[in-house]
Amino acid sequence: MAIAPIAALARNRAAEPPDTTLFAQIAEQLEQRGYAICPAALPEPVTDSLLVALASQAEAFVPAAIGRGGEAERNRFVRRDKIVWLDEQQPHAQAWRQWSEALRLYLNKRLFLGLFSFESHLAHYAPGDFYKRHRDAFRGESNRLLSVVGYLNRGWQPDHGGELVIYSDDQLPPLVSITPSFASVVVFLSEEFPHEVLPAQRDRYSVAGWYRLNSSINGQIDPPR
Predict the structure, then answer these.
(1) pLDDT tens-digit series, residues 141-178
(2) Considering the chain, what percentage of its residues have pLDDT values greater than 90?
(3) The domain containing residue 154 runs over which residues?
């Protein structure tokens, strides 16, 4: 991947104000059903920025864990993806951070969600990797309120697998199955929807993020990693 030309283009576009048309679509779908699916919808500056971050962080991916902080553990029977967290020290993801912050402000204004902070990571699923059914937040705990997933897979075909499957509850059948095609974005209520990632036939790349409420108490800063 040629990083330099994409990086220059991403820097030039990073300061452009976001188009709220996509934000409105996300808000409307969240209001109607609690999840939003927008195919090929992420702005080009955002996908450019994430592709640069992906290439620049290729050696930094580590096996993903289950849980948070000191309770995190790795379990290859549950998930086999590798991840790298995105933070302020990674300038290539600037457009993604700006876009996610603009979405946070829009959803707070329109839906009164009280979204406070955002965390995200890049994820790589090698062929055959998966993440079994799980929730991004436990009911009654205000750690993660809203989940966001964007896909970075050009030329993805239906027979490549790797779908994100969302369930209405812990019982079958699935509610919806989403192909991880390039620039598609999925947003859903973290507590409400169990979901899984099916094994793919080729390398599968995505960015996943979570909006959180402010749960900092007694001097303990939230969120911990």
Answers:
(1) 558 999 999 999 999 998 999 999 999 987 778 999 99
(2) 70
(3) 3-212
What's the whole-model pTM score?
0.85
Q: Total domain count for the chain?
A: 1
Estimate to the nearest angstrom the gap between the alpha carbon of 223 and the chain centroid: 16
